[in-house]
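Section 3.1 - Work completed
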Amino acid sequence: MRADSEKTKRIYIDSITKFIKGAVVGLIIILPGMSGGTMILLLGLYEDLMRDMAKFKLTRWVTFALGLAFGLILSGWIFAWVFTQYAFVILGVLLGCVLASVRTVLEENRKPSVGRIIALVIGIAIGFVLSLKTGSVVDSTSEPGIPILMIGAALSSALMVLPGVPGGSVLYMMGIFDDIMNALANLDWKILIFYGIGAVLGMIGLSNLLNRMYMRHKPILSWLFAGLIIGSARMLIPSEPGSWILFVALVAVGFATTWGYERYSKAKLGKKADAEAGESIPEETET
């Protein structure tokens, strides 16, 4: 009986812990410039999550998913309220976050080459064309189509689990970032249901494929993705910013925030790796 009680207690504590970790990931994972995969890795869940998704063993992640949904809704509510009141401020900060994420994406592949420069230029061109089609985030009024919604959800959710890759940036590249945040805040089920279906399909069906593809061609794809981010950043620049000096200052705040977050994450992961390496070294036996 006591053993059963201890087991039940451990399961309960594990469920609560996963819910809280899911909520933390949900709060930041959808924001452009923030890498949800890095946070999942930092929380010690990445390897188990990727392994279980590959084997479709998802029951143990139900509480994590509930926490993630709670965090996403809370993040959407906060964003929608702040964006309504201070759109100018949010655009400046988000632009800074997005530009800082370029450094993160190129973290291990900063040395340029002909192929990487070509990939960067292609990415910038595609991102700029996307920004012309969708326009500024603040000027977006039309509801996104279901195909665009599901494709954006699938790609962003699949990329969100890759460490160092800001999957949320896909949403603003496709011009649906503000639509998703408002839908989360207002619980617009028409949008959320299709977004959820696309996200689940992307995470289960594409995450492992994209992970293998990304790791195999990481240098070229990193520069391509950096180009996409730079090219589509135009959507975060308001047509009438009011004060350019203030806007640049806000961009700097967003840039510093993302830069600091990534440096902190990298430092924590480095300490964790060192600790694990230390534990794996067998103690010398006395002779």
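Second construct:
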Amino acid sequence: MFCPKCGKKNKEGAKFCANCGAELKRRSNNEKSASTKEKALGSQPAELQSGSKAKNEVQKSDGSRAQKVQKVRKNAWMRWTITIAVLAIVAGTGFFIYQNNQAPSNTKSNSADYTATVNSESESSSSSSSKASSSKASSISFPKSKVEGTIEDAFGDISGTTSVYVSPTDSSEKVVSHNGAQRAASNIKLFIMITAYNAISEGQLNLDDEYTLKDSDKVDGTGAIRELTAGTKLTIQRLIDYMMEDSDNTAANIMIRELGGMDAVNKQIKKMGATDTKLERMLMDTDALKSGKDNYTSVTDLGETLKKIYNHQMISTKYDNAMLDVLKQNKNRTKLPHDLPNEATVYNKTGEFDDYGVENDAAIFGNTKGSFVIVVMSEDGQRNEQINQMNSFGSVMYKGLLEENE
């Protein structure tokens, strides 16, 4: 134990200090406990400080972890938000595309229903063009009652027999008046041209093939080839052009022979389904005519044929367009197209035979609003009267269907 005065260490149990003689008092257990406690407390601050630091570190760590968790949650929320937004956009776009893709189908269905109603009121057609076009209504208004009234006004009081066909090019709707087989005159050349282009498409004939003209080929009537000298070389294309643009009879007869004769042309006519049309004699064959043979067609056969060509349903797009180009160059515009405005597009083929009072015209009229087929065949009539009424009828129909059409 230590002396409280001098601080010398004395033996355990000594009552007086060996150095200064001061009395040495023994500490009670309570004091020892307190001393021990003080020592313990003396060493505790460092531990507490360490613990405090650790606690602070833990708190900092916990705070950092909480921030990280919060950040992760925030990032996850943002990712979900973006994902949902993208899915919404994709779904909306898909729905929009689906609706747009459905629209044509619905439109087609509605058009088919409308056309079915029209077909129930219209004459049935044997041509494939009517079947193809029945899937949609015409792009132009076609008031049948007005068309019928216009036909009656134009031809009801003139002499002879007059047949009429009017139909939009893109619909099976039509008005037909007095359909039946009539003298075709030069309108039969339309079917010769079709037979030629069909043979060309099958490789049996070539537009560049040349034919050498003979004097025996030449016949009277319309055309310029009869004025050419024998030995003149003419390509198949040139012969077709002469036959259609100038209505050349010599060219028509040469083409019939080059195609294999009248049977070949009639085979093509039958294939087309033109039931009122038949080639029975060569052009200007008066002997055959006297024996009762002639060439026949009808307004329906001509009308449906033009519609097939216009809609590329006759041979192919290439050759149907070639035939339209030829028809567009026809020089005779004295009948149905006579009073049309300059901006009108016209494809036509005429026919006339004065001995039988025949005046025919088969045409397609068009402008930016649409197009329609118009055919008039008149026989046993008076030429001036027939042509004047055709002029008027063509003009009224053009204005009514393509100019006043809303």
